[in-house]
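chain below, 146 aa
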Amino acid sequence: MPIRAEERHRYPSDWKAISARVRDEAGQKCEWCSAPNGELIRRGVTRDGQNVWRPVGASAYEDGHCAITGKVVSDSSPDVVAYRDPIRVVLTVAHLNHQPEDCARTNLRALCQRCHLTYDSKLHSANAAATAHKRRAIGDLFQEAR
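prediction:
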């Protein structure tokens, strides 16, 4: 995920090297769903709610992979719901404690964009709520009294 300009000062100067090392140690695959970096895949969901993915070009009878465990999931059963449009996997590096200054390997995970956004979703929601609150507060300051 791109680093916002106002947050760049929180990252170490060698962040690109750290990030590359983490992705290499993970085998250029998401550490949570095993989606391969740079590959085109289709994501889908089974009828029981299990997230799966399959490489683009795989036949309808080839197995997919569970997006939670990375384990192979059989697609040949009628329980698999249709796959979505293809996406290219972008492997990112997530800070598990949301502190960019903490670059200990135990705090870093190589995650595909889906897993990273899912992991950060509560933080993103809180940030959006705080931003909306600030905008409303500034508006209140400058509204004319009626």
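The first helix runs from residue 15 to 25. The chain has a mean pLDDT of 80.
thats it, cya
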